[in-house]
Amino acid sequence: MSHQTGIKANEALKKIFAKCRDGKIRVLKVSIENEELSPSTSAKPVGKWRDDYDKMIKPLIEENQPAYILYRLDTKSDSAYDWLFISWSPDTAPIRQKMLYASTKATLKQEFGSASIKDELHGTVPEDISLEGYHKHKRNDAAPAPLTSAEEELAELKKTTVHTDYSVETRHQTLSGVAFPVTEEAEQAITDLGKGLYEYVQLKIDIEEEKIHLVMAGEVSLDKLPTKVPSDSARYHLYNFKHTHEGDYMECIVFIYSMPGYSCSIKERMLYSSCKAPLLDLIQSLGVHIAKKLEIDDGTELTEGFLQEELHPKINLHRPKFAKPKGPPNRGAKRITKVQELGPSEQEV
């Protein structure tokens, strides 16, 4: 598992590792380039480790690019310097980059020497890996139990990827979701639907571009709605269901996530499931109220009866009355357990 990606340290990185062990390096940034672990930037100590920390770490952070940072502390264990291992994985980085760095982390630690790594720090925003962020990490995670390489990889993958079931029937909530950017055209169509300019909007994920695009926007009657659902790819749909309920005219915007079973690739199923929650947040932030969220695997499910039942489920008001249980059979007549006292007039009779 530690060499899962097959990416290893190149010769230049191995040479600078030797300088790190001699204490000549304060900070080292490592990147994945041409399928190799390569040194990116390094710097020598200037002052105490706390004084150097923010001055040296902050310039190494790139907004959209993951990286590894090795930072030397001033303490020693077994005559060797202790190191802090920082994994920088910003939320804005492509998910494939985040997964690549997460699955190569154990390899880098092994190449550098896990015994020299005193502590680890993971960050998705600059504040996470600042000096204050490191102190906060120490306070919140005092004396953590040691993890095996496999456990460290699993924990890192949980932080940087989304775990989800791939079946459309599942209702399992993703841990964080993947917020792919939505194109301006798609965002405008969502806003216009909220204003009543459109009745139907369909969106799709461009997997290679990692963006959510508009497929179509316009007027679609309910009987034509099933024909808009592809049978070979996933989609997001917004539909303004105009109907009457108990004599009142109503307009309810329904979000429909269509996933045609396992005819789609695992990657497509994973991305559509992961992007759903962030997309819903965006839709609602644009002022569009979602009355109901639905998941379907076939467009034929979208009938008026189905939508009515989902929006206005029937409540059974005629509950059976409680039936008092009968007593045991052959019980016989009740016995008198208390003798009634007679009055004086009754005794004279």
Description:
Helix 3 (95-112) packs antiparallel against helix 5. Residues 162-176 have low confidence and may be disordered. This protein is 30% helix and 24% strand. The N and C termini lie far apart (105 Å). The protein has 2 domains: 11-160, Severin; 184-311, Severin. Strand 9, helix 7 (266-285) and strand 10 (292-296) form a beta-alpha-beta unit. The protein has a 5-stranded mixed sheet with strand order 2-1-3-4-5, with helices on both faces. It contains 9 helices and 10 strands. The chain has helices at 11-21, 49-57, 95-112, 131-140, 149-160, 184-194, 266-285, 304-311, 344-348, and strands at residues 27-33, 36-43, 67-77, 80-88, 117-123, 200-206, 211-218, 235-245, 248-258, 292-296. It has 349 residues and is of the alpha+beta class.
**Major pleated sheet:** 5 strands, mixed
- State the order of secondary-structure elements, H for helix, E for strand: HEEHEEHEHHHEEEEHEHH
Look at the helices and sheets and give the structural class.
Answer: alpha+beta
Q: Give start-end ranges of low-pLDDT stretches.
A: 162-176
Radius of gyration: 33 Å
Outline type: elongated
